Amino acid sequence: MIKVSKLVKYYGQTKVLDGISLNVAKGERIVLCGPSGSGKSTLVRCINGLEQRSAGDIEIAGHKLKADCSNVLELGGDVGMVFQQFNLFPHMNALDNLTLAMRRVRKTSRAEAEAQAMAMLERMQLGAKAKAYPRELSGGQQQRVAIARALCMKPKVMLFDEPTSALDPEMVQEVLDVMTALSREGLTMIVVTHEMGFARNVADRIVFMDGGVILEEAAPDAFFENPQHNRTREFLRQIGPRTH
Amino acid sequence: MSPDIFIRAIPIVLQGLQLTLIITICSFVLGQLLALPLGLARQAASPLLRWPAAVYTFLIRGSPLLVQLFIIYYGLGQIPAVRESVFWPILREPLYCGIIAIALNSAAYMAEVVAGALKRVPKGQSEACISLGISRRHRFTDVLLPQVYRELLPNIGNEIILVLKSSSLASAITIMEITGVARAFTARTFAPFEVFITAGILYLAIGFAFTFLFRQLERRYGITGTRTPTPEASA
To answer: Where is the ABC transporter domain (chain A) (predicted)?
Structure first.
């Protein structure tokens, strides 16, 4: 479903990704973790064409992404993205946030798009908030609307870039619950997160990055019980209190 | 100062009201229409779009409107090619020249404001569009510009007041709008104080009406404080 090979990315003179290769099979759930500045957000942003890359190949959901990202719109919603800052459209209510791309990109009729969007909001337990504007919603609700918006495009892959980092602590769980439910439906997912409890529950594979390279990949049990790399052990120690 | 002349001045000044409103509204609308493509060009990636727009705003903003009015009305008519062109029926009329000059001016100022507001829309808005596969055109028409114009409503309300005040300069190219008729009245009566006070009050009243109108629009469409914060550069 996703093939990244020898991905290199510079910001000016700084090398932020240094030869990343990563294959993700259909239905696989990957958690990407690592200290801040390790390049994990940059990696997911390269994978869906929000960042240009300096070298390497990316193939995702059947699309070969060009290095300058000029064909990024061909992904056309096949790759859903959930952002740390939600990035809802502030001048539209929740329902219109969901239907815009369905109507413009998938060319779904308004009635059909609204019916699908309502069903999606119900699934997120946000049916009552369909007419609410983003400013009238809590952070957790906004992020669930953002997840619903991406799901309405029936993506083959979902990418989550620190989806709970901007949330108040009491709202983190409702978003993680939605993501856990999604993971049970066989959707291919890459999640950048510091929520190690979620990683342990949901991930098929945990990928640990540091300094722009992948240091270690393993199934959750092996990753948490028997980390191979010093940097991984150090990271787990630092982040430890948030594991349980 | 005499109350008698005040009363005589009122109907005189009101004769100019219609032309003032025509100039103001036409220049304002034309200016807004021109400001959008200019503002987009100011922001464009291609220097072929950016540079002409930058030169335009530099020339227009850097020189006085009165001078521009004289150039367009008196100056262009000197050029035979202009007199023979299809534009001559328009450029020969002082009213059209006034509207064009004020509109070009307003467009130059608004273009900068539009470009600035576009720059301030958080990058995440475009990224959300890209990740949903929304085309460039719809990104602008459905997501970016609605946000830009909602944010700019107060600036646009301010701009129509500036255009209204600029319209008084049209009297310099023989147009008998409020200031024009007031000057003519003064020439006959030698009583400038009464008639210009009356004219000033009328300008204030029109400005107040426009301000009120835009307040209503802002209340209905404004989205102050609804921006999601700009995402921090996280690696």
So the answer is: 2-236
